[in-house]
Amino acid sequence: MRLKLAIQKSGRLHDDSMRLLKEAGIDIGNGVNKLKAEATNFPLELFFLRDDDIPQYVEDGVADIGFVGENVVYEKAKKVEVAYSLGFGKCRLSFAVRKNENFTGPSYLTGKKIATSYPVLVQGYLDKHSIKAEIHEISGSVEIAPGIGLADIICDLVSSGSTLFMNGLKEAETILDSQAVLIKRKALAPEAEAILQKLLFRVESVKKAKRNKYVLLNAPNNNLEKIISLLPGMKSPTVVALATPGWSSVHSVIDESDFWEIIEQLKLAGAEGILVVPIEKMIL
Ligand code: PRT
Ligand code: ZN
Fold it and tell me: Whole domain around residue 125: which residue ranges?
């Protein structure tokens, strides 16, 4: 059997979804049609769909799993499970007001006209704050609504903020932080679940590798202990004697978030010839 994965046919999530599969060592054959494709070296079948339709297809079992934005998952509110955060497609769903206006908090929305493609999420926010406002659902170009007098406020996805800026709007309040996630059907067959676990194991090792760097450096033996203490490594650093007496080569793995600070300290401790190399896969 094959695990059936739905991904976006074209759009912002398509390329990153395909890249992730490739990095996980999964080759996708050239599909005979544009709707489906099969992996040549992994029990996976791909369906190319509009992102809005993916939760429904997963709920119905047409696909077992899907890659889709959390914004779509929560707006569609289908019976699917969010199983894993994929780390791409990051954005936020935010209210935005005209740039000369002051959003003073949720009560500011009372009685206002709000244009959005996310009526369910916006209504949820209004209900949570016991606020009554008018929601105008529009499917695209939400940012032009205040300019043409259709709405006072919008609620739309933002990433860089330049779309809002170009339309004379400013971000006021975020109601959802979103990224692409892996959703799965509730009650997946055990065989499908086993393939999913294999896929997740690969995806996780790709993600871990991206967060870490392999570091090689030369250390004077008289300060070797200090240098080793700065480098945690997966177990402990590898130390190899250099041909030059009194020096060793030290190899280790460090986390991206600690990276610059550790490099600074290593230099202060006398480390030289520091090489930092990307890691392709990391299996712990
Ligand atoms: O055809 P299909 O229905 O599949 O695609 P679509 O047009 O509905 O979606 P698409 O490809 O635009 O976006 C797919 C997913 O990408 C979204 O559901 C989000 O999860 C994610 N994503 C990440 C974004 C953005 N960033 C984003 N910036 N989706 C849309 N935008 C839009 C936003 O709506 C606004 O118009 O980009 C504009 C704002 O961007 P900035 O950078 O100017 O702030
Ligand atoms: Zn869409």
Answer: 91-178
